């Protein structure tokens, strides 16, 4: 009697997208900063140190072996990239502390789309914020 062939995570996900049956429903946990917490990192450290964040995501993947793994660490990166001030904590996910348009709503008309050259350190950006912006994948910039 032949043993059934083991279904790969990719085959399981493709079957789900096509509305077909597989051996089980694909596992798709949204780990986020929890991956860093499992490695003993504070949320701020996980969100601001890309090398540690990548290591934590790999460790999470190897520990739980989900069918899908999305590599992200916080949802405030885009807001921070356009000038919002982000509040980091050791225990709570990042939040917007000050909106870029908070004091000058007319600034929306002057807001520029980030480019590769605008991700380098500027005189108005703190060095920590500028450092975080520079490690975004180049594929995200036009």
**What class do helices, strands and sheet pairing give?**
mainly alpha
Summarize the biggest pleated sheet. Answer: 2 strands, antiparallel
Classify the beta-strand content into a percent band: under 5%
Mean pLDDT: 79
What strand order characterises the main sheet? Answer: 1-2
Number of strands: 2
Sum up the overall morphology in one term. Answer: elongated
Put simply, the count of helices is 7
N to C succession of SSEs? HHHHHEEHH
Helix coverage percent: 25-40%
- CA radius of gyration is 20 Å
Question: Termini separation (Å)?
Answer: 56 Å
Low-pLDDT residue spans: 121-142
Describe this structure in words.
The protein is mainly alpha-helical and 142 residues long. 37% of the residues lie in helices and 5% in strands. It is built from seven helices and two strands, in the order αααααββαα. It has helices at 9-17, 34-38, 43-48, 50-64, 77-81, 107-110, 127-134; strands spanning 85-87, 95-98. The chain has a two-stranded antiparallel sheet with strand order 1-2. The model is unreliable at 121-142 (pLDDT under 50).
What is this structure's SSE topology?
Blueprint: H1 9-17, H2 34-38, H3 43-48, H4 50-64, H5 77-81, E1 85-87, E2 95-98, H6 107-110, H7 127-134
Antiparallel strand pairs: 1-2
């Amino acid at each position: 009697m032949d043993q059934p062939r083991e279904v790969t995570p990719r085959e399981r996900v493709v079957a789900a997208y096509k509305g077909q049956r597989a051996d089980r429903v694909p596992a798709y946990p949204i780990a986020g900063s929890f991956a860093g917490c499992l490695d003993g990192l504070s949320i701020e450290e996980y969100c601001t140190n890309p090398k540690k964040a990548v290591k934590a995501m790999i460790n999470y993947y190897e520990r739980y072996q989900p069918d899908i793994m999305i590599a992200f660490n916080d949802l405030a990166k885009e807001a921070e990239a356009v000038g919002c001030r982000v509040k980091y904590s050791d225990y709570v996910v990042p939040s917007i502390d000050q909106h870029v348009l908070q004091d000058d709503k007319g600034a929306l008309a002057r807001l520029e789309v980030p480019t590769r050259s605008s991700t380098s350190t500027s005189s108005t950006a703190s060095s920590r914020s500028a450092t975080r912006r520079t490690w975004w994948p180049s594929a995200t910039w036009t």
